[in-house]
Amino acid sequence: MKIIQWIQKSLCLLMIVIWGFLLFGFFSVPNEIVTVADAVPTHRGMYSMENVKSKKENGETKNFDVTVKFLGTFPVKNTRMKVSARQYVNVSGEVFGLRMYTSGVVIVSTDSVDTPQGNVSPADRAGLKKGDIILQVNGQSVNSHTELSALLSDFHGEAFTIDYQRGEARRSTTFLPAYSASQQKYMAGMWVRDSAAGIGTMTFFDPQSKIFAGLGHAVCDIDTGEKLPLYNGDIVEATITGCYKGATGHAGELCGSFKTESIGTLFSNDVRGVYGKLLTERGNHKMPVATAQEVRPGKAQILSTVDQSGPQLFDVEIEKVSLQDERDRNMVIRVTDPALLQKTGGIVQGMSGSPVIQNHMLVGAVTHVFVNEPQRGYAIFGAYMMETVKNISQAAENLAS
What we know:
Helices cover 16% and strands 49% of the residues. The chain is α+β, with helices and mostly antiparallel strands. The chain is globular. The N and C termini lie far apart (79 Å).
């Protein structure tokens, strides 16, 4: 009797373990696996990929429907495998100066106007908030604070229509300025921003599309934290003149100077970085781009410019890899190089975009620093940045045709 009870308990425990691995596999295996012809995965730990159901050709890409199984026996989920040719890029690590002008103007704060009847906030009254992007005033496009001021002064206190964007939604509202008793004029009670500038690092240049990729994350407004909508912009050469060393609770920063001559134009300010066209080809280190599935926890290097010596390799450790985040936080990295820790304290502002290299392949780019642990930070997969380059290139080809 005891033997039967022991067997029953063992079987229950075994089933719990199997179900645990099945659930883990279901949530950890992505719905789409992107790989290359020379590195098609057949196993991922205890999970095998088999039973090809169909194959579709799409240019150089082959799409397979595969079944993922635990221990080659228990089905976990069906997923799509995209197999394409290996991509090669010119890895950079150079710093650049960025000059960007917004499409519309971003509201960075709202204020009250001291009317004869008391304080009134015209923006609040119209339902406008910090982070909203003003696109049009009475149907006329607005791309700078001077354009906005000129349009507002034309109405002499009359109501007008503002078209604005909040998140992904476009909205419209009626706006009524308020008369300031102290300023003796009508005022909108809004502070707006129409441009941004800073230093970043170029990740790579794609010789095929002639497009460069940098930063690894979007340029966001310093006050609102929202992604700035790109109207136009360019990049210029920059020289590092110093560095504020990072410390616990305080992010460090590279200091530099801009040159005036443009070396490229900006096409896109994306959650995966900034992208554009270079006037001349850059980057001398031709390197294959690793797929997300090829990135592993372990030793790696970053190629970064932190002084006037230009791009240098520094040792890091990839502590964690996440296939679920499709934006800019796919890896957690930790700086282990004594020279870099001595000079910068770890990851600092301006190093965003620094290529992450593992097994002689570009696996990603540095994106963010942990403010309370400046030796650690996030990185994005290089494959995701390359995917964005291909999408931009394809969109440009479609527009040209």
